[in-house]
Amino acid sequence: MASSVSGIYTSSPSLKRFPNQTPPLTQPLRKDHVSFHARRADRSLSLARPRAVAREVSDGAAAAAAAAAKGLEKDPRALWRRYVDWLYQHKELGLYLDVSRVGFTDEFVREMEPHFGKAFEAMEELEKGAIANPDEGRMVGHYWLRDPKRAPNSFLKTQIENTLDAVSKFANDVVSGKIKPPSSPEGRFTQILSVGIGGSALGPQFVAEALAPDNPPLKIRFVDNTDPAGIDHQIAQLGPELASTLVIVISKSGGTPETRNGLLEVQKAFREAGLNFPKQGVAITQENSLLDNTARIEGWLARFPMFDWVGGRTSEMSAVGLLPAALQGIDIREMLAGASLMDEANRSTVLRNNPAALLALCWYWATDGVGSKDMVILPYKDSLLLFSRYLQQLVMESLGKEFDLDGNRVNQGISVYGNKGSTDQHAYIQQLREGVHNFFVTFIEVLRDRPPGHDWELEPGVTCGDYLFGMLQGTRSALYANDRESITVSVQEVTPRTVGALIALYERAVGIYASLININAYHQPGVEAGKKAAGEVLALQKRVLAVLNEASCKDPIEPLTLEEVADRCHAPEDIEMIYKIIAHMAANDRALIAEGSCGSPRSIKVFLGECNIGESYA
Ligand SMILES: O=P(O)(O)OC[C@H]1O[C@](O)(CO)[C@@H](O)[C@@H]1O
């Protein structure tokens, strides 16, 4: 039963460390230089900053260089030439990348080229199966998912192909009604409830928003948090359709607390509705994980593998992304084809012909290779709304690292945020245009406004889509006029193929950029600290409960002060956390505040109200 998934646990398997086993993918890019941004003066001087070098000291005239750094090319003819010279086009994908509004110089490109050479070699090694995630001793194989013949051995190739076939077959059988829910009046599954977090949610959410048809065969909802009210809301929205809901629980590790909690909450809802959860449950997880074992023992409807060598944030083309997409009627083979075509382009060792490398070049230039500017993602298309949220994890969890591959403290990363245009025009574009200059923009342009045959002119010669186009172009120009740099990625339409390509483009850009700055893009050690601390808070809460229970059993109406609780917990140094725990429990009717109020913590006296004899809070 579900109760077998119990206890608080952290998700990551213990990390093997091989500090000296794999040489760094690139030589660190070291130059002595004058600090470029005063506010970053505390950064280690060992950081990689060829741009700063190019801008500041190449001709020995710091003032001239500083002026040049501000003065982006403004002559329209020269800009047009730059646009044409640098425009990247992928004909088959109908995708363009315009980097002309990023001000990198020829000198900077020349200087960076050898570093790109090393990054390309590193990517090649990675695709051949190198241990590209040295801390965890893992291969990094998301590129094989869309081109299984590139997998380093036939076992992995077959695993990928078999999983894809199994996903397609299962999705077809569900959509066609061959696989049915046991007790639904509909006689077929109508809804998906996807339970997962981080990389086990963001890709499926982005793709659903981008590509699900207006009337998908199964509609999708997400539980991606341990917020009880949020979960209740999703379950309430399903209402009687819970009986025809396919619950897909996604967790690579199979032990992420939020996902476990989501599962337990959903299982409770099933029990209360008199439904048989296992007949409607699907697990996507690593073989033999806690989730996998639970699903196997309980006899869930299906289980699909998540591979050790695919990271959560690059898992959209694994069963994690493909199963929910296929169930919504999205052509997953087209998504894979788009990604594969993009990967092929990104294998070019000629910088100009490699769109991911061009992106990485722009990121390096714009952020000085140290994340000094934020990446604002502005898709001018409602269906791409979640792209920035998806990229936030892909970029920030990959690049946001304290140490480089040589163990130097570098505190790297690039912050990502965004929403959509032209909506943002009426929100934060004001600051982008005129306020603090701490960002560069990436516009995502979709050339086709709506399907053929539906357009009309809402004023002579002008459609609704023309306005959207005008807003994008206008914002791009207005920002540039004020020295705000931007990249523009254009696609013909939002299709499974272009979405697959966009994902692949950014996955590779992150990989290349990580090589340039010499960090491991494929681990996330920082996340563990928060998970561990959360576990400690919950352990402390159990001690508090035990202390209050013991006190209530001795004298049900004699409340304890916070100090007394902390002393009896043998944790006087944790008094602030104990106060917060009590305030939270009191707000949820699980402890009673006898005296005082939460606004004046010293005044609080607390008790449990009832003695739970024999209750173990351990
Ligand atoms: O798929 P899992 O193992 O549940 O992990 C979910 C997410 O948690 C993280 O490990 C940390 O946030 C992400 O990298 C991952 O995508």
Automatic annotation (TrEMBL):
List UniProt keywords, sorted A-Z: Gluconeogenesis, Glycolysis, Isomerase
Give the start-end ranges of region Disordered.
Answer: 1-28
Q: Which Pfam families match?
A: PGI (PF00342)
Annotated family = Belongs to the GPI family.
EC number per UniProt: 5.3.1.9
Drop me one GO molecular function for this one: monosaccharide binding
Question: Does the keyword Isomerase feature in the UniProt annotation?
Answer: yes
- GO BP annotations, alphabetical order: gluconeogenesis; glucose 6-phosphate metabolic process; glycolytic process
List the catalytic activities from the record. Answer: alpha-D-glucose 6-phosphate = beta-D-fructose 6-phosphate
Which InterPro entries is this protein grouped with?
A: G6P_Isomerase, Phosphoglucose_isomerase_CS, SIS_dom_sf, SIS_PGI_1, SIS_PGI_2
> Could you tell me where the Polar residues compositional bias lies?
1-20
**Source organism of this protein record:** Vigna radiata var. radiata (Mung bean)
- Protein name as catalogued: Glucose-6-phosphate isomerase
What pathway is this protein a component of? Carbohydrate degradation; glycolysis; D-glyceraldehyde 3-phosphate and glycerone phosphate from D-glucose: step 2/4
Q: Name one GO cellular component term.
A: cytosol
